[in-house]
Task: inverse folding
């Protein structure tokens, strides 16, 4: 690209996730109190806040894992609240990726089968799914470990396998809930570098729930939640 091509108005990516007026109760607990969130295509966003503030509840509403009591979530041109439960499952399987704190790899499956699983559940044949799984494992520095069981991997390696599994279906959005919470700080940094490098190079939108400022430092933007409401970063730093 020449320097001239940089001249002109800044290119602003379109909104990919729009949530409006999200309210959610868990029993007596008012976990979300009218949350509005807009996340743009390719953005890396950290959702931060104290324990119990509603971060995971927000992530689960955005990803269609749970439905809000009121309010709407749109991803791309799909209004999640309009989908039936089966349609939401299929949408999650084919359009979204997930990474959790402890990886949640299936212990009886090898690394390659764990990564291939979302594709196979979506109807891809095993041989073809394994080709893509191998390519992601190699990209994440795990070539040669395809046949290992999760118990034969280090914590950082297992979390990379979980990243590969989250990315294998080329999701529009990768949701990560405390993705480095079970790792030591050096391994956590390496996993975050890998995660954000891959997200940037593939233009994958990344939503990370974390209470760790070192993890949030890898994001483009932070959304702070306190007592179920979004607060501004300036307000948060004053609290
Ligand atoms: N399934 C549930 N049943 C009852 N209460 C729940 C349930 N899930 C969450 N809560 C409550 O809702 C509130 C928000 O929980 P949430 O898990 O979203 O917070 P969080 O910010 O992700 O917390 P943490 O950082 O500790 O994981 C908390 O008070 C929690 O106890």
Result:
């Amino acid at each position: 690209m020449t320097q001239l091509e940089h001249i002109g108005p800044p290119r602003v990516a379109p909104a990919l996730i729009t949530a409006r007026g999200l309210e959610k109760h868990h029993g007596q607990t008012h976990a979300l109190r009218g949350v509005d969130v807009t996340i743009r295509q390719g953005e890396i966003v950290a959702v931060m806040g104290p324990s119990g503030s509603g971060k995971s509840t927000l992530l689960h509403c955005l990803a269609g894992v749970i439905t809000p009591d009121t309010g709407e979530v749109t991803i791309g041109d799909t209004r999640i609240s309009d989908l039936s439960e089966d349609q939401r499952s299929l949408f999650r399987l084919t359009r979204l990726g997930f990474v959790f704190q402890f990886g949640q790899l299936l212990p009886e499956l090898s690394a390659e089968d764990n990564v291939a699983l979302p594709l196979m559940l979506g109807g891809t044949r095993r041989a073809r799914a394994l080709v893509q799984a191998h390519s992601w494992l190699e990209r994440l520095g795990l070539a040669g470990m395809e046949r290992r069981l999760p118990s034969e991997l280090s914590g950082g390696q297992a979390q990379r396998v979980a990243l590969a599994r989250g990315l294998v279906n080329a999701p529009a959005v990768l949701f990560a809930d405390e993705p480095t919470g079970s790792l030591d700080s050096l391994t956590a940094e390496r996993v975050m570098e890998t995660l954000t490098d891959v997200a940037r190079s593939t233009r994958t939108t990344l939503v990370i729930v974390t209470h760790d400022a070192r993890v949030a430092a890898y994001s483009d933007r932070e959304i702070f939640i306190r007592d179920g409401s979004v607060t501004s970063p300036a307000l948060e730093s004053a609290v």
Remarks:
- The chain has a mean pLDDT of 90.
- Residues 116 and 133 are 5 Å apart (CA to CA).
- The domain at 13-238 is CATH 3.40.50.300 (Rossmann fold).
- The pocket of adenosine-5'-triphosphate is lined by residues 26-27, 29, 31, 49, 51-57, 211 (CB under 6 Å).
